[in-house]
Amino acid sequence: MKREKSEALFEKAQTYFPGGVNSPVRAFRSVGGTPLFIEKGDGCRIWDADGNEFIDFCGSWGPLILGHNHPAVRERIIAAVNKGTSFGAPTALENELAELILSNNRFIEKIRFVSSGTEAVMSALRLARGFTGKPVILKFEGCYHGHVDSMLVKAGSGLSTFGISSSAGIPESVSNDTIVLPLNDRRAVEIAISDYAHDIACIIIEPVAANNGLLLQDKSYLEFLRKICTQNNILLIFDEVISGFRLGFEGAAGHYNIQPDIITYGKIIGGGMPVGAYGARKEIMSHISPEGNVYQAGTLSGNPVAMSAGIAQLHECLKPGFYEMLEKKTKYFLNEITANCKLQTVNCKLFSLGSIFWFAFTDKEKIQSSSDIDPESMNRFKLFYKELLERGIYLGPSGYEVGFVSSAHSENDLKIAAEKIGEALSKVI
């Protein structure tokens, strides 16, 4: 595989940006080598600056559920740009996208658009604190909620102790208002609530934890969180930046039929443009400024270009049978991979839900918490990733990241990719 142009671009980028990138995982440090500089994408394929072609299962980390450069999305974006790129004022497009979401989602009554998933989480946490009048957030190891200060914490030393910062620049006073617990541990939740119920504003969780592997929780565990939150006047937040509109139009809330108090969204609702959102029932959302006293604002919130892209993409997602088709493709793909290699010979397991999948080098049948992941297995993923690139298969450059199947992947694309993945796995001994 040719890499000269990407290498030259990366060398220059390192003089401009910290680590040569504008988001850390792009630096390829966990897989080694030089990051690929992508030049274009179309359908399920991308091409880098050196002209190498890849079947893409990263999909811009999840937003591109229709694949790259989808005609309906592209045309709506161009039409919006022709009228202007930003106004900092309301547009009918905001109403159109909001109506599209709310009229097809039983779990929220009002929504507020922002510009990223991180911003959505930040705003949802502030809303939870403002609504309840309580300061403490409870989160779980293995769930990623963006680079909000209070979410960049790791577990303290006990089952109900407060977390400590996992990033420089976050004051202890901030991390002291966050409790971090292991996933899938009911007793830990019960102890924390017993100790701090009067201070806990909310419990936040990725109902489909997909930022640290694919840590699939039992429905009964999510139902347990719903029940204990209700009993203790604590709000339950589902962070559905990844799972929202991916498992179905109603996301994980719809998949599990569990009503959270607040839901955060991002990725798919922007059609490839920067968008986030948070929503809840009217009573909670009425606390947001200018209606209420919880302040949140954004110059580019509801950007007309981003709204147009989201409208086009979600109309496609609402077509009858869309999600069933996507899940069928994913099952076909994973079955083809299994048929092309003996996963047990390399201790590799495939975990999946809907159109999300994850390769884990493990002999465990279930991985439901971050502690279940062997850090040494990432060395094997590093070898696997190098072999994938050489065969024209692109995943996110980290063994902790999941992959996505899009509607643009044809059965033939998936068959070819499965064969290449089988070849790559055979090299990981």
Key traits:
429 residues, alpha/beta, Aspartate Aminotransferase, domain 1, Aspartate Aminotransferase, domain 2, seven-stranded mixed beta sheet, 17% strand, globular
Annotation, overall tally of beta strands: 18
Largest β-sheet summary: 7 strands, mixed
Indicate the mean pLDDT. 94
Which range best describes the helical content: under 10%, 10-25%, 25-40%, 40-55%, 55-70% or over 70%? 25-40%
Number of helices: 13
Counting helices, strands and paired strands, the structural category is alpha/beta
What are the segments in which pLDDT stays under 50 over at least 5 consecutive residues?
A: none
Specify the CATH class of the largest domain. Alpha Beta
Strand residues, percent? 15-25%
Tell me the name of the CATH homologous superfamily of the largest domain: Type I PLP-dependent aspartate aminotransferase-like (Major domain)
